[in-house]
Write a structure and sequence with these properties.
single chain, 194 residues, 11 strands
Length: 194
């Protein structure tokens, strides 16, 4: 049976934080036979990333049923490129709540944790987000009643959060581990040069 990841791209998402999920899962599927698929999704069919790289997504948010997916992956993005306009949209916050209600994996990189915090599913749970610039984003996450831990990657049950773009590959490997096993993840990680 195949495993399906929904990779959600809000306007202004960071390209590097998006691409790691495609590459790590692609290596696992193509070279090691893991039946794991990544479906990209956004509010519109074309989503412009931070620094204006256009990406054509597989599906729009209105076409999504959480029953079809095992995990939700959320790259962060830049406020200046409109990230929070879509990341904080009530439709997306509802989608996050649906994934959490079904105890499905939610994984984020950098400020991708902020919509998860805003959705309420991190209330009284551990998480992290972007830690530089005097911790302004971690302060924002704490305002959603989140127990903010200043570590590169924080896992609280089904939710993975991380604190900056540098963690991107490790987050994708952690997701692969949660979907397969530590040993299977290590094989892919080694093959990719880590």
């Amino acid at each position: 049976m195949s495993t399906n990841i929904l990779l959600f791209l809000a306007k202004g998402f960071e390209t590097m934080e998006f691409s790691v999920f495609v590459d790590v899962i692609g290596w696992a599927r193509n070279d090691y036979g893991h039946d794991i698929n990544v479906t990209t999704c956004g509010f519109t069919k074309q989503v412009n990333s931070t620094f204006n790289v256009p990406v054509i997504v597989d599906k729009t948010i209105d076409e999504i049923s959480t029953a079809d997916y095992d995990a939700l992956a959320i790259p962060g993005g830049f406020e200046e490129f409109g990230f929070y306009e879509e990341a904080y949209d009530p439709k997306f916050l509802d989608l996050i709540r649906e994934f959490d209600n079904k105890n499905k994996i939610i994984t984020t990189i950098c400020v991708g944790a902020l919509p998860v915090g805003k959705s309420g599913v991190l209330k009284n749970r551990k998480a992290t987000t972007y830690h530089l610039k005097d911790g302004i984003r971690q302060d924002q996450l704490a305002k959603f009643d989140v127990n903010v831990i200043n570590q590169p990657i924080v896992v609280d049950e089904n939710i993975i959060t991380s604190y900056c773009p540098q963690t991107a590959a490790d987050v994708a490997f952690k997701l692969l581990e949660m979907l397969t096993s530590y040993d299977e993840m290590k094989i892919v990680k080694t093959a990719m040069g880590w």
